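Example 9 (inverse folding). The structure is encoded as follows.
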C-alpha cells in the first residue's frame, strides 16, 4: 500500500512530504499550503536529481491503472487545511471519469482522515471508499474514530507501547485494520509483521520489500526475535513515552488550530462500504 499526501483541494498536485524545493523566484519562503492557495505548485521540484515536478492526481490514477500496479492500493493522506466537501467532490469527479472505476479504482483507494469533520462528508460523497483515521494519539483514535472508520493509520511509537498493544488487540477484535507510519528501521518493520498489521508506510520500500520476501520464504526465521528486538526500543528517543506524547500533543494543537475542535457532533454513520455500481 502506498500513502499519498493531499495539501490542496485543487487536485493540481499530490505533494511529496519530503525532498521538495521551489524554483520560482520570490517563492522560496512560501509554505506548501500557500503554494496551493496561489496555484504555484508548478514551480515545486524534487531536490534530488533528476528534478521532478509534483505529479497530478490524474497522473497518480493513470499509474495505478497500469497492469504492473494492479495490486497497489493508495492511502490518501487528506490534510485538514482542505474543505472536505470540496475535496471529496473533486476526488469523486476524477474517479468516476474513468471507465470501469467501480472495479479498477474504488476497491484500491482509502481515505486517510485526520479530523472528525471529514467523516460525514466522506460517508455522503464517497461512501464506496473505506475510511482510515490517521492519528498520533490512541485515546483520540478511540474516542473520535473507532465507530466511524474502518481502520487506522498510526504513528509507530504509539503502537509499540503497552497502550498500543491493547489498541492492536481491540482493533483485531473489532475487525479494524491498522497501517503503521513511518517505519524505516528494519527491526521495526519486522515488529510490524509480527503484529500482523495491514501495511507499513516507509521511506525505504526497497528494505521493506526485502523483508517481506524473507518472510514469504521462511516466516519463522525472518521474524525470530533477537537481542536487538528487546533492547533497541529502549535506546531510541522516539519510543520514549514523554517524546511521543509531546509529538501527539503538538499534532493535536496543529489539527485543532487548522480545522477546529475535535469535539463536534458527528451523527452515527453507516459502517458498510457502499457498492460503487449502485
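The amino acid assigned to each position is listed next.
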Amino acid at each position: 500500500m502506498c500513502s499519498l499526501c493531499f495539501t490542496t483541494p485543487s487536485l493540481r498536485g499530490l505533494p511529496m512530504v519530503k525532498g521538495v524545493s521551489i524554483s520560482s523566484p520570490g517563492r522560496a519562503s512560501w509554505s506548501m499550503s500557500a503554494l496551493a492557495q496561489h496555484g504555484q505548485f508548478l514551480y515545486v521540484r524534487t531536490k534530488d536529481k533528476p528534478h521532478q515536478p509534483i505529479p497530478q492526481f490524474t497522473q497518480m490514477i493513470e499509474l495505478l491503472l497500469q497492469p504492473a500496479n494492479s495490486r497497489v492500493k493508495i492511502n490518501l493522506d487528506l490534510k485538514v487545511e482542505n474543505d472536505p466537501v470540496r475535496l471529496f467532490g473533486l476526488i469523486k469527479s476524477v474517479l468516476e471519469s474513468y471507465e470501469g472505476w467501480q472495479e479498477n479504482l474504488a476497491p484500491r483507494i482509502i481515505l486517510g482522515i485526520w479530523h472528525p469533520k471529514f467523516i460525514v462528508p466522506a460517508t455522503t460523497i464517497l461512501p464506496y471508499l473505506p475510511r482510515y483515521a490517521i492519528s498520533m494519539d490512541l485515546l483520540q483514535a478511540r474516542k473520535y474514530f473507532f465507530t466511524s472508520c474502518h481502520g487506522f493509520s498510526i504513528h509507530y511509537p504509539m503502537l509499540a507501547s503497552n497502550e498500543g498493544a491493547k489498541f492492536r488487540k481491540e482493533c483485531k477484535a473489532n475487525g479494524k485494520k491498522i497501517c503503521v507510519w513511518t517505519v524505516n528501521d528494519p527491526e521495526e518493520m519486522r515488529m510490524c509483521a509480527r503484529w500482523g498489521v495491514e501495511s507499513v508506510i516507509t521511506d525505504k520500500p526497497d528494505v521493506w520489500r526485502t523483508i517481506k520476501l524473507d518472510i514469504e520464504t521462511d516466516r519463522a526465521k525472518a521474524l525470530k526475535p533477537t537481542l536487538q528486538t528487546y533492547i533497541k526500543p529502549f535506546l531510541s528517543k522516539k519510543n520514549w513515552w514523554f517524546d511521543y506524547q509531546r509529538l501527539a500533543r503538538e499534532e493535536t494543537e496543529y489539527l485543532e488550530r487548522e480545522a477546529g475542535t475535535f469535539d463536534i457532533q458527528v451523527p452515527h454513520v453507516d459502517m458498510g462500504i457502499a457498492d460503487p455500481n449502485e
